Amino acid sequence: MSNNVNHPSHYKMADDRDLLDHMVEMYGAEEVISFCKLNALKYISRAGKKDPKRTKEDIEKAMVYLEHIKHLLPSSELPKEKDDHNEAIDSFLDKLPERYH
Fold first, then answer.
1. Which pLDDT band, with edges at 50, 70 and 90, does 1 fall under?
2. 72-97 per-position pLDDT tens digit
3. Distance (Å, rounded) from C-alpha 15 to C-alpha 6?
4. What is the spatial distance between Cα 30 and Cα 62, in angstroms, rounded to a whole number?
5. Structural domain boundaries of the chain?
6. Cβ of 58: how many Cβ atoms within 10 Å?
């Protein structure tokens, strides 16, 4: 993924750490997980609509937020196998309102 998707420079703090790391320190993992879920939803729902040339980039951005969620979850909540991981993502996407499918 491009730097614009995975590690955009405009989200780096003065100490060169990612903004999400600071958010976890300030608000806790649970709040940041909610933030990431909402951002993933935003990018999934706008993919192909805001700028059709950036559909893939929007999907990649959603995936980055889903990966952040995976890393913030306690290890007991992480899927044990790849198939479980896919089921977790499918479950999240299934909960989206019909208009986002």
1. very low
2. 988 656 555 555 556 666 776 777 66
3. 18
4. 18
5. 3-100
6. 20
